[in-house]
Amino acid sequence: MRPDPSARRRRLAGTAAVRAVVWTARLVALVTVVAALFPAPRRAFMASLRASLGLPPAVGMAGVVISLVAAVGLWLLGAGLRRRKRRAWTLAIVVSAVLTVVNVLHGVTTGHGYVAAALTLALLVALVACRRRFVARPDPGGLTRGVLILMQLPVAGFVLVWLLLALNPRRIDGNPGLWQQAGHAALSLVGVSGPVQFRAGWLDDLTSAVGLAFGVTAVLVAGYHLLRSPEPEPQLTGDDEDRLRALLDRHGSRDSLGYFALRTDKAAVFSPTGKAAVSYRALAGVALASGDPLGDHEAWPGAIEAFLGECASYGWVPAVLGCSELGATAWARAGLDVLEFGDEAVLDTATFTLEGRAMRGIRQASGRLARAGYSVRVCRLTDLTDDERAAVADRASRWRGDAVERGYSMALSRVADPRDPCAVVVLAAQEGEIRGLLQFVPWGGDGMSLDLMRRDPASDNGLNELMIAELMAAAPGLGVARVSLNFAVFRAALERGERIGAGPVARGWAKLLRTASRWWQIDSLYRFNDKFRPDWVPRYVAFPAVRDLPRIMVAALEAEGFGGRPPAVLRLLRR
After folding, report:
1. What does the alpha-carbon distance between residue 65 and residue 69 come to, in Å, rounded to a whole number?
2. Cα–Cα distance for residue pair 191/217, rounded to 1 Å
3. Quick one: average pLDDT of 489-501?
4. Which range, 36-50, 52-66, 191-205, has the best average confidence (pLDDT)?
5. What value does the mean pLDDT take over residues 255-262?
6. SS3 track for 132-145
7. Who has the most CB within 10 Å: 247, 473, 493, 515?
8. Mean residue pLDDT across the chain
9. Which domains does the chain have, with CATH numbers?
10. Which positions ≥6 away from 155 have C-beta within 8 Å?
11. What is the phi/psi pair of residue 283, to 5°?
12. What percent of the chain has a predicted confidence (pLDDT) above 90?
């Protein structure tokens, strides 16, 4: 399963040059900040410029503010340059050209600033020389939204400051005209004091703060939209779904998460031969794949290269959630770092038993619910009538209520759907009324993976345990040899922290995970799975660099339905 060396060389071509451009941009930004914050040599330059052109004293402060904004903008552009975004390259060209002109004029006038001019000129030359390396496409609507924001927010801030001046004449010295007030409002957008003088100091501070807040917000939000990576509406086309199903028919037994590639909110990219594929979803600038690549593992490198090429063309950070050890090896060979971050609980139907002291809790729960009148039905989805399937889907939706749909890497996001005829459903009923539901999807020809676990909130405790026990009893008759249950994040860390003699680091990490379980069910899922004495199969996360982990975590939490970007913020940014 060796990757194609030439393909990898093509993908990594120019990496050193791009890194040099990024660090040069950051160095220029740092030097510009230092020059703006310690402007002793610059004062002489600005004084002579103002004297020769007859400009007001506020020009000097405006130049400092603009230099700081340009420096901060150039530093932020470094992240876009690192992901080879074409629009970041264009903006960096403009900023570096402006800074080069300013620094050259500064050097000619005062004799200082030649080092800064040399750095900005070097950055400009490097950007031009490496122009073919910056190919990532921008968000199609980002330019329109960015321009609108640069128009709307400054105008709103200008009008608001002007109204503050017009409505407070008694707190202003003299009688400034409308044009003076307008000039003051315009200068406030860049944090500069205008011609209006105040009797009340708080009004001076308020107008400056309001204007600068609107100006800075306009630049930051417009920059976000100009530089954000595309986030297309997730959609699995009919043709891609057919190709994925064909791959699952031939190689679906390799990975228990393979069937979840058929989620409708995922896209797929295939190897050049079509023998392998990677399914993913783009969120928050991250292309989040889950599980192993589908298909023949000998063709995985081609699918991985195609996926990484797709990420490079859109400026996405590639990441993989929940791959197996074999998949982690393939991703590591493609250049990604790998960390173990959880375990999958797998039950063997041939060896599973409710006998023994360790299973006493499951036996007692099952017996108690059986005496309470609960019965369990295990069947293929095709064994249900259309009315029964509709009733199951309705109950599942009703039990979920207004809660966010959970799951991404181990959830199909649909219930009792005719598109999944080989799915297995476990229905628990009491007095003829459905009170609990489990849905399993195929794992090759002889396995099942847990997709959905829901129950009536008013049902008795232990219902899930009863349904799993009855499933394992019925599994041999369904031709099922192995069953995958829930995924337990950081299970090994929790287990190590409970061992006798565990060190303070292991105990502290386990305690932190148990605290986080109040929101994310880390410890509770581990405890539930461990009741069935499963085999624990490690799962891994793959990522390009440690600095990308916070962004990847946000995308993963959002995909799994446990947080991420607040919906209110997303709606505001779209507006």
Report:
1. 6
2. 12
3. 70
4. 191-205
5. 92
6. HHCCECCCCCHHHH
7. 247
8. 82
9. 5-227 (no CATH), 239-257+269-335+545-574 (no CATH), 346-536 (3.40.630.30)
10. none
11. -145, 135
12. 25
Which pair of structure tokens corresponds to residue 303? 């699918």
Does residue 75 have a pLDDT over 90?
Answer: no
Which residue spans within 284-371 are E strands per DSSP?
286-290, 294-295, 317-323, 337-348
Inter-residue contact 230 to 282 (CB < 8 Å): yes
Q: Which tens digits make up the pLDDT trace of 120-145?
A: 888 888 888 888 888 888 787 778 88
505 burial level (CB within 10 Å; 0-12, 13-18, 19+):
exposed
**Rounded to 5 degrees, what are φ and ψ at 355?**
-75, 155
Name the residue among 210, 199, 201, 218 with its Cα closest to residue 164.
Answer: 210
Under 8 Å between Cβ of 28 and 120 = yes
Which is nearest to 527 in space by CA: 519, 517, 542? 517
* Pairing state between β 317-323 and 286-290: parallel
d(CA 479, CA 468): 16
SS (H, E, C) 355-375: CCHHHHHHHHHHHHHHHCCEE
Q: SS3 of 394, please?
A: helix
How is 244-263 classified by DSSP, letter by letter? Answer: HHHHHHHHTTS-TTGGGGG-
Tokens of 21: 């451009």
Asked if 279 contacts 312 with a C-beta cutoff of 8 angstroms, the reply is: no
- Return the pLDDT at 305: 92
